[in-house]
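Dear colleagues,

As part of the handover before I leave the project, I'm documenting each prediction I ran so the next person doesn't have to rerun anything. This entry is a single chain, and its sequence is reproduced below.
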Amino acid sequence: MALFFISYDLMTPGKDYQRLYDKLAALGGQRVLLSLWALRGNYTATGLRDTLKSFIDSNDRLLVDESNTWASFGALVDINKI
């Protein structure tokens, strides 16, 4: 299964983005940093992007990256266990 990192800039101050967080968790994602999630699965970056677009506003930003290697410091979870 591929490892994906999903990062976003949510541009609407005070907006409740709980639906986005719930969807990321339902896909198996775990928050790694405040605006970075990681998940493993049989997905494509394009498919994840298209799925998550419906949970953000048109002025928000979203990046989905399929990753082979990474290094971290101070992550909220152990990425190796995802």
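The domain at 2-71 is CATH 3.30.70.240 (Alpha-Beta Plaits). The chain is about 20% helix and 30% strand.

All the best with the project,
I.
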